[in-house]
Specification:
By secondary structure, the protein is an alpha/beta fold. The protein has 18 helices and ten strands. It has a four-stranded mixed sheet with strand order 8-1-9-10. A four-stranded parallel sheet has the order 2-3-4-5. The structure holds iron/sulfur cluster (SF4).
């Protein structure tokens, strides 16, 4: 039987109550409403996001405790992950998004465009390593025909009929539909019929026109993103939801963005999870060309708050909050498990978008390593598929040990755990 907010409230943990009592009254009021299962408003979400700085330390502790309780109520002690492979079929793109460190011009060193056969070879390698999903995204190559997207899907499905294809951001759908002279609905329905299983809700950045003008010259408007996502949900394609934060944005944008995602979810039920994505500034032209006007990614407090407030604002709407280990690294990702997070995303095998922007958290964390991280936080690892069906629960056994696909040049991502041998099981 599902525990309701009221049921839970009668046996509220003592530690939670102590944290709430130590917070300022307006913050306590908002959190109490969330714990009773009520929807908090955009303005209340913004107030939670604004609890930064030393004076608000006790407010933040109450927010984190509330997020953790809502996480436990929705998802229990299991922390999920998916065994997947990232395949970026081209990095050639002339859209000129100013935050992007990934895109290259055709003549630049390192520019590549994989044929469908090359993508299939990578997908087969993932399948042979136990992968159930390929996550496929690419740049908007000027020479690409709209047909490329469907050819890619058909090639993969012919070779690997049971592989789940999670592919194409709303920006790619916008591009492919234009190139094919099709409506979003017809283009998406065709891709679904060719084997598309779900879509990443990337390219959302911040769904605010002014912010998007700075980030992407508003080439894919917030309205177009929303229309494509709603249309995808309408033709039966679930998507993830994302927010990229820590550049020219602030609490008012974050609260509005999450409230908008909640509104979409209320209508369609098509989001599987929210993935907060920290802006990686190191090799991003947006930052390197304007270091005085653009922030170098979110602060630690903002990262904690983003995961926790997302959990609180989306409770009962989007119950999977994922942390991106490619953006934060394994150690910070583990800390987010106490900030309302219940999912560690994918093993990825070949991460390249964050790496191109200057992230150095590696290309793959194996299933066994993800289990180590989860258990070290006192939680139970669970392998899932893309749409959150349970594949295996590692409560009394381990996943098969498989070496990373790409040999690691730097340090082991789990070195931080070895510093505390008592938490490694
Ligand atoms: S973010 Fe995507 S669309 Fe924008 S420049 Fe980079 S690859 Fe191109």
């Amino acid at each position: 039987m599902k525990t309701t907010g009221q049921d839970f409230d009668r046996r509220r943990p003592v530690e939670l109550q102590a944290r709430l009592d130590a917070a300022r009254a307006p913050i306590k009021r908002i959190l109490n409403r969330a714990l009773l299962g009520r929807e908090i408003t955009e303005a209340e979400g913004r107030a939670l996001f604004e609890t930064t700085g030393p004076d608000a330390a006790l407010d933040r502790e109450a927010i984190y405790a509330t997020a953790d309780v809502l996480r436990a109520r929705a998802k229990g002690d299991r922390v999920s992950f998916v065994v997947n492979r990232n395949i970026n079929f081209t990095n050639i793109c002339y859209m000129g998004c100013r935050f992007c460190g990934f895109a290259k011009r055709r003549e630049e060193a390192g520019a590549e465009w994989l044929s469908p056969d090359q993508v299939v070879a990578r997908a087969r390698e993932a399948w042979d390593r136990g992968g159930t999903e390929v996550c496929i995204q690419g740049g908007l190559h000027p020479k690409m025909e709209g047909r490329y997207y469907r050819d890619l899907l058909r090639s993969i499905k012919t070779a690997l009929p049971d592989m789940h294809i999670h592919a194409f951001s709303p920006f790619e759908i916008w591009y492919g539909a234009r190139k094919s002279r099709m409506s979003y609905r017809d283009f998406l329905a065709d891709l679904r019929d060719c084997g598309l299983g779900s879509m990443p809700g990337t390219a959302a950045e911040i769904l605010d026109t002014e912010v998007r003008r700075t980030l992407t010259k508003n080439k894919l408007s917030a309205e177009a993103w929303v229309e494509i996502i709603r249309t995808a949900h309408g033709v039966g394609l679930p998507t993830t939801a994302t927010i990229m934060y820590g550049h020219v944005d602030g609490p008012e944008h974050w609260a509005a963005h999450i409230a908008l995602l909640r509104d979409i979810q209320r209508d369609t039920g098509g989001f599987t999870e929210l993935v907060p994505l920290s802006f990686i500034h190191t090799d991003s032209p947006l930052y390197t060309q304007n270091p005085d006007q653009v922030r170098p990614g979110p602060t630690d407090e903002e990262i904690d708050l983003m995961h926790a407030v997302s959990r609180i604002m989306l409770a009962g709407f989007i119950d999977n909050i994922q942390v991106s280990w490619t953006k934060l690294g394994a150690e910070r990702a583990r800390q987010m498990l106490s900030r309302g997070v219940n999912d560690l995303g994918g093993t990825l095998m070949n991460e390249s978008i964050s790496r191109a922007a200057g992230s150095n958290h590696g290309q793959e964390i194996t299933a066994l390593e993800l289990c180590e991280i989860i258990r070290s936080a006192g939680r139970i690892p669970m392998r899932r598929n893309t749409i959150y069906d349970t594949v295996d629960v590692y409560d009394d056994h381990d996943p098969e040990e498989i070496a990373p696909l790409v040999e690691r040049a730097g340090s082991d991502p789990l070195d931080f755990l070895r510093m505390f041998p008592e938490v490694v099981q």
